[in-house]
Amino acid sequence: MACRVPSPDPSVVYAGFWIRMAASLIDSVLMLLITAPFPLLLFVFPSETAVLGLSTAFSALLVILFWRWKQGTPGKLLLRLRIVDADGGAEPDLRQWCLRYVGYVVSTVPLLLGFFWVLWDPRCQGWHDKLAGTVVIHAPQRQASASRPRT
Q1: Are 71 and 83 in contact (CB under 8 A)?
Q2: How far is Cα 72 from Cα 125, in angstroms, rounded to an integer?
Q3: Are 34 and 49 in contact (CB under 8 A)?
Q4: Mean pLDDT over residues 31-44, rounded?
Q5: Is the pLDDT of residue 146 over 70?
Q6: Which of 44-58, 78-92, 130-144 has the highest mean pLDDT?
Q7: Pick from 41, 1, 42, 40: which is nearest to 18 by CA?
Q8: What is the pLDDT of residue 145?
Q9: Which of 2, 29, 37, 72 has its CA 20 to 30 A from that of 43?
Q10: In this structure, are residues 106 and 127 in contact, taking their beta carbons and an 8 Å threshold?
Q11: Which pLDDT score, from 0 to 100, does residue 117 have?
Q12: What is the mean pLDDT of residues 3-10?
C-alpha cells in the first residue's frame, strides 16, 4: 500500500508498510544471531533479570548507534531505505533517535498497533516515527560520477 501524501520534494518517496516489514524481519534475524549467546551469561550472572537487562541494553545501543551512523538498520540499508527528519529531511539528532527507540516500545505494547499504523498513516509513519518526528524514505539514487578522460 502506497502512502497517500506525497513528499514535498518529488525526489523523496516515503517507504510503505511491506518494505518496512521486510527490513524489520531482516533486522530481527540479525539481532537474534547477535544476541543468541546472551543466555550463556547466566553462567556468569545468576540473575535472569540481569541477563535480560544486558541483552536489552545491548540491543538498544546497537540499534541507536546504527541509526546514528547510517540512518538505518542493516535491513533498511539492504532495502535502500533511510530514516530522516519528518520536517526537513535532514539526519535526525540523537534526541530523535532515542525517542524513536522508546517509540518502538510504545508501538509494540498494544499488539503491535503502532507498527501497523504505517498502513493507515498518510505519510506512512508508525507511532515511533510520530513520537520522534521522523519518516522512512527510499534512499535517493546516487548520481554516477562523470568518468575522467584518459590522458
Answers
A1: yes
A2: 15
A3: no
A4: 87
A5: no
A6: 78-92
A7: 1
A8: 52
A9: 29
A10: yes
A11: 97
A12: 83
Q: What percent of the chain has pLDDT over 90?
A: 70
Residue 17: all three cell numbers together: 508498510
Structural contact between residues 125 and 117, judged by C-beta atoms closer than 8 angstroms = yes
Using pLDDT thresholds of 50, 70 and 90, give the confidence band for residue 9: confident
User: Which amino acid would we find at residue 148?
Assistant: R
